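Appendix C. Worked example: Elongation factor 1 beta/delta chain
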Amino acid sequence: MSFSDFTNASTLKSLNEFLADKSYVEGTSASQADVTVYKAFQKEYPQFSRWFNHIASFADEFEDLPAGKAPAASAAEEDDDDVDLFGSDDDEVDEEAEKLKQQRLAEYAAKKAAKGPKPAAKSLVTLDVKPWDDETNMDELLENVKSIEQDGLVWGAHQFIPVGYGVKKLQINLVVEDDKVSLDELQATIEEDEDHVQSTDIAAMSKL
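Step 2, the predicted output written as structure tokens:
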């Protein structure tokens, strides 16, 4: 079976079996073959694709989501057992089910509100700032770097590290809120100090 078998949007089962020992439809990296199958699958199963992508967006909250009804049995099982797992047509049963649903939603909302907002994602960064030569005033360079203020940016400890021929580089730690601070833009701002700064590099970075 090849990726061409899926261009007309083959079944979910066939696609699943085809990808059992593969990460991509063709070769060892993403390609237009993957795009073709992806689009074909979305066209054939638009509602499932919408639902799957939407539910995937709740991945960080899976454990906190409220309880729900048991999933429906297969059509064959329903024919054999004649059981409707989503309830009956009885108005009273439906009313009780709706009350239970609303109660669980309210409990989930209260639980989520009690937890408060999630803490902002932060990164600890070690930045190397390289001067032009051994005559660069490193104290001025440090002062200019730390004078950069931005919401979500906190400067930390620093040190001057010899790199050879009497030249030292500034190595400084900082904590940034990922959603507020662009490291590329921060480096560009530091490098605007052309009298002192030759270049900058991220020496290390880790999530907090």
